[in-house]
Every structure is written in C-alpha cells, then in structure tokens.
Design brief:
Shape of chain B: globular
Number of helices of chain A: 23
Largest sheet of chain A: 5 strands, mixed
Strand order of the largest sheet of chain A: 2-1-3-10-4
Strand content of chain B: 15-25%
Distance between the termini of chain B: 33 Å
Number of helices of chain B: 13
Radius of gyration of chain B: 25 Å
Number of strands of chain B: 17
Distance between the termini of chain A: 47 Å
Largest sheet of chain B: 6 strands, mixed
Largest interface: A-B, 20 and 24 residues
Oligomer: heterodimer
C-alpha cells in the first residue's frame, strides 16, 4: 500500500509536465463545452417557456442526444468534423444540453404563476420580468442543471482523448493500454478533483448571486472565457502534415520517427495525433482529411477496408494486394513496409503451457471448450482472429472480450487461460509468456507501413523518399525492445525514436 | 374615472366571461365588485390593467382609451394587490416596494423616503422590516406590504383581488379596518373584488353585484340592502340583510341582571344598572358609580333594527344599552356581545345556504 503510494508519487513527479498539460487541456475542453452548452441551452430554454407548444419535441430531441453512448457520439464526429479539439467540444456540448435545457425550462415554468401575474400587473416588460423575477427564482434549478452538465462533461471529456482532443483521458488511455493503474489514477484523480473544483465554483457563484443579481454569474463566465481564449490566441504555427496513430506505444514510436525524418529532411512542419483509438477511428480521420498519414498494417487493410479474405500468407504478395487495393478504392498510398511483422499470436503463461503440454495452436484441440480466452473486441470478430481459429483449427474457447491493456494482468492472475497478442508486444517477455506456434499459418503477415493520402503525396512528393528509408528496417526484436522501454520503462516515445534513427545514421546530425 | 362601455370578454375556449358591461367608477371611489365564483368579477377587474384585454367594447381611464396607452406606463399607474399576496420571495421588503418607483425612474433617495413612509403608514417599523425577506413576516404583515407595494408608485387607481381571503380571520378583520381608514386618507380610486358581502358592505362606496358576466345591480350598500334589484341580489344578501334588519327584540334580554327596581338600587353596587319604578316599569335612568341615579339618553326604542342599534353603540360609550317601549317602559337590555354573536351566527347560516 505504502509502496504503491510511493511509486504513484514518483510517477506524479516524473510526469508532472504531462499532467499539467493534460489537466490544462481537460480544463479547456470542459469550460468551452460547458459555456457553449449554457449559451445554447439557457436561451433556448427561456425561449421555450414562451413557446410551450414546441417545448416538448425540442427537449425530447436533446434527450435523444443524451441516449447516444458518449463513445459513439465521439465516433460520429470524426467523419462529420474530424479529429481533435473541435469535434470533442461539439460532442461534449451536445451531450450537456439536456440537463441545462430541461432545468431552465422547468425552473422558469414552475415559478409561481401569481408571482408572474404580479410582475405583469406591476408593469414589468417581458425581459424585465425574466431578469428580475423568473430567472432569480428559477436560478437554483437552473444551476443544478448546469452542475449536472458540468459533471457529465468533465467525466465524458476523458474519452475525448480517443479522438485526439487530449486531456486527462490521455493518461487514462495510456494506463489502460499499458495496464498501469498508476497512470489511470494519475488521470482519474485530477478529473475527479476538477469536477469537484468546478462544482465548488458554481456553488460559490450561485451563493454570491443569492438569486438576486446575475453579476457574479456574468463575471465568472467572463473569467472562464478569458481563461479559455487567451491561450488559443497564441497558438503555435500551423502544421503542413498531420500524422496520426492508433492507441499504443508502437504507432507512437513509429510516427515520431516519421516526424523526425520529415522535419529533418524537408522544411515541412509535422503535427502528431497519437493514440487516436482503434482502427476505424483513425481510418475515418484519414478519409476525412484530418490526418494525412498513419501507420497501418497490410493485413488489416485487406480484411477491414477491402473486405477480402486473406488467402495468401506471403509477405510480399499480401503487401501488394493491400497497396493496390487501397490506392484504387480509397486513394490512399502505402509506402514501403518495415521489417517487423506484428501479426497476431496466441499467448499463454509459460507455466500453464507446460502443464497442459501445448506448443502449437493445434495442441489446443484436446482442450476444446475448456479454456477461457481473453480477446480484444477486434480480435474476437476477425476472420484472421478468433473466427479463423474456429474455422481453421476447429477450437472453441469461452471468450471474454476485454480492453487490450487488461489482458496481461488477467492472464497472469489466471482469470483467463490464453489471450491474443501481437508479435512485437512487450509483455510477452515481461510476464514470461509463451507464444503458441501458428502451425496452420492462419495469421496473415502484419507488416506496418505508412498509409498516405494521395493528394498529400502529390503536394509533397519528397516525403515518399524520406519515409521509405525505414522500409525493411526495424526487426521484431528491436520493436519489442522499444515498446518495452515505452510501456514498462515509461520513456518518451520521441526520445526513443530519435535514438533509434541516430543509431542507424538516418538523421543528418 | 374609469368608464366601461359595452365591454365583453369571450375567452379562446369560448367561455363568455363578461357580457356587455357599462358603468363608470368615479375618482376617489371605493368600488366593490361582488358575486359568486365564475361571475366575471375578477375578469372585469383585470381588464382595467390589461392583464386581460376585452373582446369587445372599450375602457377609458380619465377619458383615454387604455388600449391606446403604453401598457407598461398604464400599469405603473395602477396598483395591483393579489389574493396570493405574491411578494417576490428573493427580494427584501424594501426591494419589493421599490419595484414600481424604480421603473418610474424615481431618484434613489425619494424611493427610500417613500418606502419608510409607507411602512410607517401600515404600522411596520421601517428600520426593522426594510431588509427582511417576505417569508420572515406573518401573513397579515405580508399583505400589508402587498398593499403598500401597490401604493408605492403613487398610482391613481388600485386594484385589489380578494386581498384578504388568504388571511386568518383576525388579520382579515384588522386589515379591512385599516384599508377603510387608508382609503379615507389617501383618496385613491379603489376597485375591490370580493365574494364576501360583509367586506363589500363595510368598505364599498358603491357595490356592483355581478352574475354570469353581467352587472345585476350597482348601488350604495344601503340601497343594495334595502332595495335589492332582483331575487338574485336578495338571495346573495340573505343572511346579511335579515340579520341587520332584524328587530332589536331578537337580541334583547328581558330578565337582565342589569335592570333594577328603584327601591333596590342601593343594595347591588358594582354592576351597570338601569333603573325603573313601579308596575309600569317606567325608565328612570342609570345608577352612577357612586350609587346616585343619573339621566341616560341613549335608550333603544323596541322598534329599532339591529343596524340601528349598532349605530347607537357607535355613537356612545358603554357596552350595554337599555331597551324601552313606546311608553318609555324598560323592557330589557342589549349588549354588544349579543349583537355580535347574533350577526355572526346568521352570517354563517347565510353562507351555508349560499
């Protein structure tokens, strides 16, 4: 317990910069979204009290927004608006509308009708009545709605990391990806504190206004706007190329290499959007032009985007099929693939494998329906994943689908007997796992290569040569080691990328 | 002066609330609208400050059609007292009172002066009450604030919509008396809605009895009581009229302990006693505190109604009066308490019947 606390404090110290940045981004996301939803829902709620006939349908519509799972709502945003802060803010704002709208409407509607009549009878205009009587009396109800929305926003904003909006979700996703609870806490605790902090400010504001004056509310809003807009005004220069990456250390290391190479060899400025969630998030992002390049595997491209079965397992052939198909169908160009083959694998704890005497996937037939498997959602549903195992090997498991980062722990603790893994994953060594041999060669080769938008290549043809220097480079072992250093050693992906490139003499200095 | 000419109101759902009203309320008059619920009295009143606009006809104040005036300014000059009191709970007493003067853009010190003046007028110490919130006041105190809030902007007209019906009986009686007094001091035109005939008879200069959206009779309290226009008014008055015009004999006590024969006068010292002599019981006067026989003028003839008895009580001191017949024989006494009990009982009867 004390040790855990100490290591958490150490992490807190070493990751202070990242924590501050993440907290700041989270604060910014939350404030902008909250302000926007207040600016939309509060006036709308007021107008609805004057037009009660349309009130219920409109409130119903905002309730529908609320029923969309927040992750799905964020996913929707990518083809519509893209990735980054803007779609996250749009999604969070939409998500927070209902409580404010409903409470504003209800709060004002429930002001004692005799008070409204007194106000009218005394000769108050509609605006004055609103300002002097209805809003102050409805204020506690409205503030309750705003506070509910605020908690929703601060909580949901942690998911915004998945579409590249940053924030404390970055830390949480990192923690989940690395099955590192300290990182999860490092993100979750400040998020909770942030919610409490906002709540305290809102409550204080409400008290100060005492239902009589809206001045304290106005001043808090102005301060909030300043906090948010001033840093936006001093933004860094616009990037020429944006490179995205899926969640995980491997894409992050590789796209850092891409950035370093491009910026070293050309005058272009590169922006990175690492940890963009799973495959479809990133693919949506590149199709809508929000990112220009990302690291994709040929096998994934064929099965997921080209909707074809992988019949051949020859590396070169598979790559060519993927390259031609992607260019023809999507206008996306694969550059040269790297050496390492991050294909799927089935891993067990070495101890258990020896006990059951299994070395190949075929050996699992003797344990059909007896073993519990922890698979990612993606693997469980892929032809070159569990579906293929069922077809080719005729083996079934009791499948638990879980987040990628949670599998090693589950395997170690014995909750699951086997799991899907990637050939270059760090935890195979870390936890002493055994990779079962794919004796029927079910798993296709998964060679990573930069997938680039054709128009970007036409605009900056030089980057093809720059990135192709990585073609055939980086072995499985090298990749495993680099992954291990990031995931376990908690080193900076950019430093590792630079170190590797320098050791290969690929950078000019 | 408020003139109603051919004013009708039909609500959107087709309810005909008011039907072709014609009357004039004089400046400085205390005008009471009375009738059973649903008779259109409140609608009639709310058309004056345009909380409800008439469907037909027009209303003029001092010769000007109210629909041609700025609605806000019109309302600033018409005080409004609600049945629900409706003080704004988030404002202090002073802020509640200041609303209309502020909208009229009075100077700050004038408003402050006005608040203190009004609070003092209704017997609430300004220093104590200015900064209280409405909920810290009793119901009666709240409606006092309700009334002075309506007065604050110095309007010419004040509308009161059953202002006392939400109060307990004690506060109600007290406020009624205060409003009556206030009206004589401030000389405002007051339009007062009630369903309570006591209130109407006590406060009104003129009473308009309404039924089904029309006015059945508009007259002084005396004429309404003595010459009801039709059976509806009579029915509405029943209980009030009967009791007030009943004979004094209904409340008189014949074998009263307050009556004594002259020869026994000295033996019973202490109580008020009216003295008679002989078998004709001729009234002689009152025994003074010192035991001497003194003249007494305020005798009640047995032909008097209770209303007339109340008049005599009003003029003289004392709570007991002697009743005499036409031959000046002392036949009994009447006390204030007996009168009150009788009126109250008959009023309750009237309510029950109504």
């Amino acid at each position: 317990m004390i040790l855990a606390f100490q290591s958490f404090m150490t992490l807190l110290q070493t990751r202070q910069d990242m924590l501050w940045t993440a907290t700041w981004e989270h604060l910014q996301l939350s404030i902008i979204s909250l302000l926007l939803s207040v600016f939309i829902a509060l006036p709308l709620g007021i107008i609805l009290t004057r037009k009660t006939k349309v009130a219920e349908p409109i409130i119903g519509a905002s309730a529908v927004l609320q029923t969309i799972p927040s992750l799905a709502l964020l996913g929707f945003m990518i083809p519509l608006i893209g990735i980054g802060t803007t779609p996250a803010i749009v999604a969070l704002t939409a998500y927070a509308l209902l409580p404010i709208l409903r409470n504003t409407y209800t709060g004002i509607r429930e002001v004692d009708p005799s008070l409204v009549e007194a106000a009218r009878g005394m000769g108050m205009s509609s605006f004055k009545r609103l300002h002097k009587v209805e809003l102050p009396i409805a204020m506690p109800v409205i503030m309750a709605g705003i506070r509910t929305s605020m908690v929703l926003i601060v909580g949901t904003a942690t998911l915004a990391a998945l579409i590249g909006a940053g924030g404390l979700g970055d830390l949480i996703m990192l923690g989940i990806a690395r099955s590192n609870n300290e990182y999860i806490l490092l993100g979750a605790i400040p998020a909770a504190l942030l919610a409490l902090f906002f709540d305290a400010i809102l409550r204080f504001t409400e008290k100060r206004s005492g239902g009589r004056s809206i001045m304290p509310i106005v001043s808090v809003v102005i301060v909030a706007i300043l906090i948010v807009t001033v840093p936006l005004a001093i933004r860094p220069q616009q990037a020429d190329i944006t490179i995205g990456g899926k969640l995980g250390s491997e894409p992050e290391i590789i796209i850092n290499m891409h950035k370093l190479l491009i910026e070293d060899q050309t005058d272009l400025v590169v922006d990175l959007e690492p940890n963009l969630g799973q495959t479809d998030f990133v693919f949506n992002a590149i199709q809508s032009g929000n990112i220009d390049i990302y690291l994709e595997f040929a096998g994934t491209a064929i099965m997921t985007f080209l909707d074809e079965d992988l019949e051949k397992n020859d590396e070169q052939e598979v790559f060519e099929i993927a390259r031609d198909g992607m260019e023809e169908e999507y206008g996306l160009v694969f550059l040269q693939p790297m050496a390492f083959n991050n294909t799927y694998a089935i891993a067990m704890m070495t101890e258990l494998a020896e006990e059951l005497d299994v070395e190949t996937i075929s050996d699992l037939r003797s344990y059909n329906n007896e073993l519990t498997a922890g698979f990612t959602h993606e693997f469980a549903d892929r032809q070159d994943g569990y579906l293929g195992i069922q077809d080719v090997y005729g083996v079934n498991f009791d499948v638990v689908t879980m987040e990628a980062g949670l599998r090693p722990h589950a395997l170690e603790s014995g909750d699951i007997d086997l799991m899907d893994a990637y050939a270059t994953d760090w935890y195979i060594v870390e936890y002493d796992m055994t990779v079962l041999e794919d004796d029927e060669t079910l798993f296709p080769p998964y060679q990573g290569a930069p997938l680039v938008r054709r128009d970007i290549l036409e605009q900056y043809p030089e980057i093809a040569d720059v990135l192709n220097v990585l073609g055939g480079q980086i072995t499985d072992e090298e990749m495993q080691e680099m992954n291990h250093r990031v995931e376990v050693g908690d080193e900076n992906a950019e430093d590792i990328a630079r170190e590797f490139l320098q050791s290969q003499g690929l950078l000019s200095e | 002066m408020i003139e109603f000419s051919a004013v009708s109101k039909v609500f959107e759902d087709g309810t005909k609330a008011v039907n072709s009203l014609d009357f004039t309320i004089e400046k400085g008059e205390f005008f009471v609208l009375i009738g059973p619920s649903g008779c259109g009295k409140t609608t009639t009143m709310k058309m004056i400050n345009r909380l409800i606009d008439p469907s037909e006809g027009n209303i003029k104040i001092n010769g000007k059609n109210i629909e041609s005036q700025d609605i806000q300014e019109l309302r600033w000059n018409i005080g409004y007292v609600l049945q629900q009191i409706a003080l704004f709970p988030h404002m202090t007493i002073a802020e509640n009172i200041a609303i209309v003067p502020e909208m009229k853009k009075w100077k700050k010190q004038d408003i402050d002066k006005r608040i203190d003046e009004l609070l003092s007028m209704v017997g609430l110490e300004p220093a104590t009450y200015r900064n209280r919130k409405p909920k810290e006041l009793s119901g009666g105190q709240q409606q006092r604030i309700g009334v002075i809030r309506a007065l604050a902007g110095d309007p010419d007209i004040i509308l009161m919509d059953e202002p006392f019906s939400a109060l307990d009986p004690l506060s109600r009686e007290q406020l009624r008396r205060d409003i009556g007094k206030l009206q004589k001091e401030i000389k405002k035109t007051i339009v007062f809605v009630t369903h309570d005939m006591d209130e109407a008879l006590m406060l009104g200069n003129r009473i308009c009895v309404m039924k089904d959206g029309t006015s059945v009779q508009i007259d002084t309290p005396e004429n309404i009581m003595n010459h009801p226009a039709d059976s509806f008014v009579e029915e509405f008055l029943s209980g009030y009229k009967d009791a007030w015009s009943d004979s004094v004999r209904k409340v008189m006590k014949e074998n009263s302990t307050y009556i004594i024969e002259k020869s026994k006068m000295d033996t019973n010292v202490g109580e008020t006693q009216f003295v008679y002599s002989g078998s004709e019981k001729t009234f002689l006067g009152k025994r003074s505190k010192s035991g001497r026989l003194v003249d007494f003028e305020n005798t009640i003839p047995e032909s008097y109604t209770i209303a007339e008895v109340v008049d005599v009580f009003r003029k003289c001191e004392g709570e007991i009066l002697p009743v005499v017949d036409q031959n000046n024989a002392l036949i009994g006494t009447v006390t204030i308490k007996d009168v009150m009990v009788y009126l109250n009982d008959s009023r309750n009867d009237g309510r029950r019947r109504g």
